[in-house]
Amino acid sequence: VDGSVAMYANYVYFGDQTGIVQCVDVNTLSPVWAVDTGDNVDATVALDMEDENTLSLYTANTLMNQGRSGVCTVRKLDALTGKQLWAYQVPDLVYTTEFEIGCYASPVVGQNAVKDLVFFTATNGSKGSTLFALDKATGSLKWSFPMTSESISSPVAVYNAAGNAWIVQAESAGKLHLLEAKTGAERTSLQLEGNVEGSPAVYRDVLVIGTTGANSNIYGIKLE
Angle 105-136-20 (CA atoms, 0-180°, nearest 5)? Predict the structure, then answer.
């Protein structure tokens, strides 16, 4: 298990390197349900309480175990039963031993103005990476944002007092993007020194992110 767990009440949710996403009752340590996604799950699963009776889980896999025949798929599951509600196959990904391919970054579950969207980042090695915005209800693609380098850093959503939303996404090569969460339009970008492997954190209007390599730094960036 490479990702972190998600929890709801007495249920814990996680995925593993064999591709099994499962729900376990922590009071009894007994499995509630398990789903085979077909390949390694590195990204932490995300839960979404849609209403008082509906709890959803979002997950995606990488291309590791199946070789060139592998497929990276984003899935929405009923978190209480494990039933698959929809699946979106990420296009144009090809397995290679030289790079990490697929969804290594954890998803963002939209709120407020983008409560109908969920966001996933898929990396395609030397061919770059893409941030996808999918419709929560149907799994249909709403927009995508291509990037020139790979990305394993998770995106983060930021909101203002009115509920309007933006997505911050970092590329491994150090470029940081600020996007309109509703449309995917880029507001601005910033080139950092070093490489980005971790995910950013946001407190109010300040984003903090670290870089690695010879020119590594910790950055505090003002969001306006």
Answer: 50
Rounded CA-CA distance 109/119 in Å is 6
Sign of the torsion formed by the C-alpha atoms of 17, 19, 21 and 22:
negative
Structure token digits, residue 201: 């954190």
C-alpha to C-alpha distance for 99 and 200, rounded to whole angstroms: 22
Residue 53 tokens read as 């009776």
Q: Do residues 153 and 105 make contact, with C-beta atoms less than 8 angstroms apart? A: yes
* Banded model confidence at residue 68, pLDDT cuts 50, 70, 90: confident
CB of 187 closer than 8 Å to CB of 223? no
What is the 3-state secondary structure of 49-114?
EEECCEEEEEEECECCCCHHHCCCEEEEEECCCCCEEEEEECCCCCCCCCCCEECCCCCEECCHHH
Query: How many other β-carbons are positioned within 10 Å of the β-carbon of residue 179?
Result: 23
Which of 188, 160, 156 has the alpha carbon at shortest distance from 175?
Answer: 188
What is the gyration radius of the CA atoms in the chain, in angstroms?
A: 17
Check if the beta carbon of residue 110 is closer than 8 Å to that of residue 119.
yes
Rounded-to-integer distance, Cα 75 and Cα 58, Å: 6
Helix (H, G, I), strand (E, B) or coil at 126: helix
Convert the pLDDT of each residue in 172-202 to its tens digit.
999 999 999 999 999 999 999 999 999 999 9
Q: Token digits for 126?
A: 């030397």
